[in-house]
Amino acid sequence: MADFEKPIVTVDVVPLTIHQDRLKVLVATRPNEPFAGRPALIGGWIHTDEDATAGDAARRVLRDKVGITQLYVEQLSTFSGPDRDPRGWSISVAYSALTPYERIEASVDRGATRLMAVEDAVGLPFDHDLIVSAAVGRLRGKGAYSDLPARLIDGDFTMSEIHGAYQTALGERLNWDAFRRKILERGFIEEAEGKRRIEGATKPGQLYRLKPGIAVFDRRL
Predict the structure, then answer these.
(1) Between 22 and 200, whose confidence is greater?
(2) Beta partners for 44?
(3) N or C: lower Cβ tally within 10 Å for the chain?
(4) β-bridge pairing 114-117 and 42-45
(5) pLDDT surpasses 70 at 168
(6) 161 contacts 153 by C-beta, under 8 angstroms
(7) With contact defined as beta carbons under 8 Å apart, do 144 and 170 qualify?
């Protein structure tokens, strides 16, 4: 039987969040070569002795390297080739993770990670620029007709807050009346107890929460 060189097999995670009204990606400084000292996506080798799936590897890497758990993680794509890693022919199974900032704030405060605006995520090691771009494209492509951008909000929210989250996530302005009508018509959210005053508002806004499951509505907001 012929001997073949084994490829490098890793996972990379693109945690996306909203911070200071901008869509940002969580990155970590690489401790080792190649590219030691440079910001990069959070990733690592697949451990065949403990990872039942690549998704398990992604969650383990987030937990062990930066102390983050309980993120919404979705497989993004597979990136491969002989030139993406100077160590040799490599395969990376990439995942997109959407999270409210509050769930990763402790990691940022400890200095284990830092946030980078997605439009500034250029010049990253390997092909991480391409992976970030793919994750943002997935969010903006699916986000216009699903509840994905709402996963960037922590807890209950006002209509103004979810409208702002969608605009930030999608990178475009959305007509307020059409947005509000679409979400309410499709049963996408439900009223929660209480109201909250938003800065600049003349009166407190009703609080809402997501209904269980994933809701889909018209792209044309």
Answers:
(1) 22
(2) 11
(3) N
(4) unpaired
(5) yes
(6) yes
(7) yes
Collapsing DSSP to helix, strand or coil, 20 comes out as: coil
Same domain, 180 and 83: no
Percent of all residues in the chain with a pLDDT value above 90, rounded to a whole number: 76
> Which domain, by its residues, includes 63?
8-143
Contact 31, 114 (CB under 8 A): no
pLDDT at 122 over 70: yes
The model's pTM is 0.91
**58-86: per-residue pLDDT in tens?**
999 999 999 998 887 889 999 999 999 99
Spell out the residues 6+ positions from residue 39 whose beta carbon is closer than 8 angstroms to its own.
27, 28, 29, 30, 114, 116, 124
Looking at the fold, whether 95 and 22 belong to one and the same domain comes out as yes
**Cβ atoms of 197 and 204 closer than 8 Å:** yes
Contact 86, 92 (CB under 8 A): no
3-class state of residue 144 by DSSP: coil
Domain end (from 108, 123, 143): 143
In sequence order, what are the beta bridge partners of 114? 27
Mean of pLDDT over the chain: 91
